[in-house]
Design brief:
binds flavin-adenine dinucleotide; alpha/beta; four-stranded parallel β-sheet; five-stranded parallel β-sheet
């Protein structure tokens, strides 16, 4: 409590000092309404921005997001299967505006924790009392020389941020000859959404089964085994997709020959007609350039009670960019939960109130194996004061061993509900 109060006073002192640079306006504002800036309007950032306004309408919230519209990664694999359009996964930010969130379309390029300000690519500077960074992930090509150039990355796509690449990858599949090979490479965990590469393999297999039955799907996995929902995916690969999908574990990628679409693995080379490399990932650029990365040069460590960075006071980090707690997935649902825990903590810190000492988070992640049938994995996570991290509640959660149509309906409802929760 004492620390929080000291931090609060220090925060206002910093604002007062900054006021000397930008005039009395800034000082007057800091005394009235506290200002929160959220960078990134995805699953975690949009949720956080909305819930701060819902729970504390006296706090000013500005969301900085480079994209004009939100496009969901969840369900984007179905665009590759051909049963969804990207338009069906695209939503605008008007709902947040109705909650009083000021939405700024722009690229945050620098953070100054001393003056507590964020600079945009256009040169504009915005001041904050607390900053939330929710920027998602960036691909890392350091270990793949063949994929370093922009040209190479445009030819061998990741489609791991839903958008143009998702549509481009679908076009590559449509253009492929019947009898061709689609190969997807899965990086070593942790990466964004553990089951998503295997869901993608099912979606492409479903498309091939219906439209190009002589074609094959190769799953080249750097890991020693399927990382999530193994029984469910195996049931699909050994059932309806037998003879179409082949799973190869321990397939570490060493490089890519973009001209021949060859994945160079430790022990073999695999040539494909459509090659989809999901590269290793790290917290997005703004987290890296702001010194927030604390683990393996990739992820941002946080205090799970507040989601505050362990490297930088006054800055909170959410979603996939975080160094996740044990068994905590990098998922949209979990990112949404980070957003809510953070919103409550930011309000408490700004209002000099106690922070919740027992935050809880839940996650349910569905995967479709075709156009209708899906299965889920779910867990409940709670704060462990001794370990100072989130742990799975014993006996919580569940896992489907086979996909079914009822869960397909739940999966569609999950998407509608979470989009309404974050953006509605
Ligand atoms: C194919 C696929 C399928 C998936 N399926 C599921 C699923 O079924 N269920 C599930 O729960 N999860 C799923 N996920 C995972 C889910 O998409 C991510 O875990 C989730 O998006 C993480 O949320 P986030 O807020 O951390 O990042 P994001 O949602 O990626 O949001 C980050 C935002 O920050 C913006 N941004 C970044 N830097 C800046 C900057 N400097 N200035 C301004 N804006 C910036 C970006 O434009 C982006 O909008 C899937 C992922 C993939 C790839």
């Amino acid at each position: 409590m004492k620390n929080q109060r000291r931090d609060f006073i220090r925060g206002f002192a910093a604002c007062a000092a900054a006021g000397a640079l930008t005039g009395p306006f800034r000082l007057a504002r800091a005394q009235n309404a506290a200002r929160v800036i959220v960078i990134g309007g995805g699953y975690s950032g949009a949720t956080c921005a909305k819930y701060i306004r819902r729970w504390a309408p006296d706090i000013e919230v500005t969301l900085i997001e480079r994209a004009r519209e939100f496009i969901s990664c969840p369900l984007s694999n179905l665009v590759l299967g051909g049963t969804r359009t990207l338009a069906a996964l695209t939503l605008n930010y008007d709902g947040l505006r109705k909650h009083g969130v000021k939405v700024v379309t722009g690229d945050a390029v620098a953070i100054d924790p001393v003056t507590r300000s964020v600079r945009l690519a256009g040169g504009e500077t915005l001041a904050y009392d607390r900053l939330v960074i929710a920027p998602g992930i960036d691909p890392v090509y350091d270990t793949l020389p063949g994929l370093k150039s922009a040209d190479a990355q445009n030819r061998v796509l990741h489609a791991w941020k839903a958008g143009e690449q998702t549509v481009a990858l679908r076009k590559q599949l449509e253009a492929m000859r019947d009898g061709g090979v689609f190969a997807i490479h899965v990086p070593r965990a942790p990466y964004r959404c553990a089951p998503a590469p295997y869901e993608r393999a099912c979606q492409v297999a479903w498309y091939f089964k219906n439209a190009k039955p002589k074609s094959k799907v190769l799953v080249l996995d750097a890991n020693e085994d399927v990382q999530s929902k193994k029984a469910l995916f195996m049931a699909a690969w050994n059932g309806p997709y037998k003879g179409i999908v082949e799973y190869r574990p321990n397939s570490e990628l060493t490089d890519v020959d973009v001209q021949t679409l060859t994945a160079k693995l430790e022990f073999e080379d695999v040539k494909a007609d459509v090659l989809n490399i999901v590269p290793p990932q790290r917290a997005s650029a703004i987290a890296a350039s702001s010194g927030l990365i604390t683990a393996n040069g990739r992820w941002c460590g946080v205090d799970w009670l507040t989601m505050e960075s362990i490297a930088q006071k006054g800055i909170h980090v959410l979603g996939d960019a975080t160094l996740t707690a044990p068994v905590m997935p990098k998922s949209g649902h979990m990112a949404n939960q980070h957003g809510k825990v953070c919103a409550a903590a930011v309000i408490a810190l700004l209002k000099n109130q106690p922070v919740n000492e027992q935050p809880m988070m839940i996650n349910t992640c569905y995967s479709f194996v075709d156009d209708k049938n899906a299965g889920h994995v779910s867990t409940v996570h709670t704060y462990d004061a001794q370990e100072k991290t989130m742990v799975v509640v014993k006996g919580s959660g569940g896992l489907s061993d086979k996909a079914n149509e009822v869960e397909g309906g739940y999966a569609n409802s999950w998407a509608k509900n979470i989009w309404a929760d974050m953006l509605g």
